[in-house]
UniProtKB/TrEMBL annotation:
Location(s), subcellular: Cytoplasm
UniProt organism field: Flavobacterium weaverense
Region (NMP): 31-60
Name of this chain's protein: Adenylate kinase
Keywords, alphabetical: ATP-binding, Cytoplasm, Kinase, Nucleotide biosynthesis, Nucleotide-binding, Transferase
Length: 190
């Protein structure tokens, strides 16, 4: 299995890139945001718990996020690989993902970080918030809080994956096609 982790702050283009990459490499795309929205929309117990954190602009706790993601991965046991979009976001999640993948005879193949300036990303999210209906994309202070959480909790994963020679940084500014080409070069080199 080829398992790719897409990193990047909210608005960096992970979901957009995932749409192209899943087709090109025949991977199953698992978006943390989509998994959360499914649980929220269907008012599951996990969704109710996640709503409290998301509405405040905070990251959902590791244990809850990991439970949702493992449940989702288990639905796709016959896949060529997984494209993780928005997970892991913390060291604890990365360790939990590694342990889970080892338990099913797999591993993370690479991590790809879409890098972009915060000010550009804030504007992207505010624009997206005008049409997405997502409360967390309509309030600049909540967006900036998400970036602070990212810097505090997610950025340390760079060292974790870099130590395993699995971390790749990609410029996330440019046309969708240009960014897809940059990410594809990383995946093709694996």
């Amino acid at each position: 299995m080829t398992n790719i982790v897409l990193f990047g702050k909210p608005g960096a283009g992970k979901g957009t890139q995932a749409e192209f990459l899943k087709e090109k490499y025949k991977l199953t795309h698992i978006s943390t945001g989509d998994v959360f929205r499914f649980n929220l929309k269907n008012d599951t117990e996990l969704g109710k718990q996640a709503r409290v954190y998301m509405d405040a602009g905070d990251l959902v706790p590791d244990e809850l996020t990991t439970k949702m993601l493992i449940d989702e991965v288990n639905k796709h046991s016959d896949t060529n690989g997984i494209l993780f979009d928005g997970y892991p976001r913390t060291l604890a999640q990365a360790e939990a993902l590694d342990a889970f993948l080892v338990s099913i005879g797999s591993k993370v193949s690479a991590t790809v970080a879409l890098e972009a300036d915060d000010e550009i990303l804030v504007q992207r999210l505010l624009e997206r918030g005008k049409t997405s209906g997502r409360i967390d994309d309509q309030d600049e202070s909540k967006i900036r809080n998400r970036y602070e959480e990212y810097n505090e909790k997610t950025a340390p994963l760079i060292s974790y994956y870099d130590a395993q020679n699995k971390f790749h940084s990609v410029n996330g500014i440019g046309s969708i096609a240009e960014i897809t080409d940059r990410v594809s070069k990383v995946i093709d080199s694996l």
